[in-house]
Amino acid sequence: MRIVYFGTPDFAVAPLRALSEAGHEIALVVTQPDKPRGRGHAMQFPPVKEEALRLGVPVAQPERARDAGFIDLLRAKEAELFVVTAFGQLLPKEILELPRYGCVNIHASLLPAYRGAAPIQWAIIDGQQVSGITTMQMDEGLDTGDILRRYPLELSPEETGGSLFAKLELLGAEAILDTVKGLETGSIVPEKQGETTTAYAKMLRKEMGNLDFSRDAAYILRLIRGLDPWPGTFSYLNGKMIKIRKAEHGGDSVGHAPGEVLAADESGLLVQTGDGALRITELQPEGKKAMAAAAWLRGTSVRPGDRFTVIREAEN
Predict the structure, then answer these.
(1) For residue 80, how many C-alpha atoms fall within 13 Å in the half-sphere facing its CB?
(2) C-beta separation of 273 from 200 below 8 A
(3) Which residues pair with 32 in a beta bridge?
(4) Which of 35, 85, 113, 160 is the most buried (most CB within 10 A)?
(5) Given pLDDT bands bounded at 50, 70 and 90, which one contains residue 198?
(6) Fold category of 2-185 in CATH
(7) What is the predicted pLDDT for the residue at 314?
């Protein structure tokens, strides 16, 4: 099938590669414009552009997908299908109606659950046991088009945002190949989406990682896992910012203030929450590399009774 592929981040690379390796003709890859990154502000290609160049596929990087010149370019490609994976711009009706098979989106949740920008992380934060990939026929709404197929995936009890991202990227590649085959054979019957049972999966912000130990331990642990590796979670101990990399349940505990250090030993930092305790086993002090909490404690004066605090105004 002749395809135009829209995508930008790492998550969109594996499906593009899979389509190409399966023998589909990628007529054009569309991605976001290059952006300056790092201290030197050097221009950096989006990951999908790097993959397109490796495959020898032409690339377009429109500032606005609805510009007439870009739409003319798409029309000239005479593609049968547009595939969209985390592209980063809404597509107008004029583009959605160009290809014979329409525009198929690869979405990292089981729609209609977790419409929005960060479905992977919110599924973990909310304590879901199953996530997955949905291929969807795009319309003008945000993740509201007809469902083509769903591909469920069970979550590990220790699932992180990073581990689920990697699993769903690969599942997305398998899903789009299966969906394209279904479109070609006519075996897919589109299904209307019902009402969502989850909150909108809003974009992540750094300040979300500023831990509030008055919340219950189970929620804080899910937040730590869900926001790993980005934006990560952190708190302040004795006035210094510490990133919390890994933690586990620390058992029942009462009679202490949220954030209070209950124990600081070779097993890590045991900290009181609003409901129970959690044990921090890996952390990253400000300006240093991540390390085991036990190793960090050997060089600090942290003692039981010290307390993690929330500093809302601080920048991370």
Answers:
(1) 9
(2) no
(3) none
(4) 85
(5) very high
(6) Rossmann fold (3.40.50)
(7) 43
d(CA 143, CA 8): 17
Q: Residue 145 is encoded by which pair of tokens?
A: 């088009």
Sequence length of the chain is 316
Tokens of 237: 């101990």
Two structure tokens written together for 287 = 């300006």
- Sorted by where each begins, the domain ranges of the chain are 2-185, 206-309
Q: In angstroms, rounded to a whole number, what is the distance separating the alpha carbons of residues 297 and 295?
A: 5
State how far the Cα of 148 lies from the Cα of 98, in Å rounded to an integer.
Answer: 19
CATH fold of 206-309, please? Methionyl-tRNA Fmet Formyltransferase; Chain A, domain 2 (3.10.25)
User: Which pLDDT tens digit goes with each residue over 241-282?
Assistant: 999 999 999 999 989 999 999 999 999 999 999 999 999 999
Give dist(CA 231, CA 224) in Å, integer.
10
- Residue in this structure with the two tokens 């998550």, named with its chain if needed: 11
Over residues 16-24, mean pLDDT: 98
SS (H, E, C) the chain: CEEEEEECCHHHHHHHHHHHHCCCEEEEEECCCCEEECCCCEEECCHHHHHHHHHCCCEECCCCCCCHHHHHHHHHHCCCEEEEECCCCCCCHHHHCCCCCCEEEEECCCCCCCCECCHHHHHHHCCCCEEEEEEEECCCCCCCCEEEEEEEEECCCCCCHHHHHHHHHHHHHHHHHHHHHHHHHCCCCCECCCCCCCCCECCCCHHHHECCCCCEHHHHHHHHHHCCCCCCEEEEECCEEEEEEEEEECCCCCCCCCCEEEEEECCEEEEECCECEEEEEEEEECCCCCEEHHHHHCCCCCCECEEEECCCCCCC
